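Entry type: protein chain
Record version: 2
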Amino acid sequence: MHTLYIVGTPIGNLEDVTCRAVRVLREVGLIAAEDTRVTRRLLDRYGISTPLTSFHEHSAEAKASQIVDHLRSKDVALVSDAGMPGINDPGADLVAAAVRAGANVVPVPGPSAVTTAIAVSGLPVEQFVYVGFLPRKDSDRRALLLSLSSERRAIVAFETPHRMKGALQDILDTLGDRRIAAGRELTKLHEEVFRGTVSEAVAHFEEPRGEFTIVVEGAAVAADTAADALRQAQRLIEEKRAAGARSKDAVAEVSAITGVPKNDVYKLWVEGKPDA
């Protein structure tokens, strides 16, 4: 048996492909792609003429045995539409079939939306739980989120634009107003990374567009961080008041520094007044 290469491809910017990935895609006898049209754009960019065959969720069962047969005479590369194959795509079925057949399975690491979002989140993510795409049905989504409500590790999930508003509202209702980072169209032309509380994200994404990777801080982190931020906000408010700052200016600045919502900071300002 020959080798099945699991090749990571860019999640957006085509310049993010590795030199090794380009070489492997040139040298193998066949490339199995989740969507041949998407992969063709990458191959054309780098002048790669290797034959393509499709391998997607609707053909996975039938195609797996055919591709394993190819492995008896040639090396094959598996690619997904973006990132590492086998994660939230049917490539996992082909990997399993190749392993059962005794083929070599070799990873060619590349970009990942999960680690990219974590890296830019600005949140404490020493450990995390990856849940893939959140469930389509509202009831299933809320049930999953409720099961994670006491999870101390950060939660990482994918979401589509037409479900993003509902997902954020469910996160707010089930997990509370924690800190969140939402990476939209990561590495693409309209890339955006939103950082703030869940309620702020709900207000920000009025008309979501693009694909999202969400990072939500863990339960214990949320509680500890919120308490620390509130204490910091109270100390800063007292300093601003002593310096003669106007309430509006002080509240805006302290909220920006600590991440505590303006309404909560304003309450601290009012409660700290001498005649309060």
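Comment: The radius of gyration is 24 Å.
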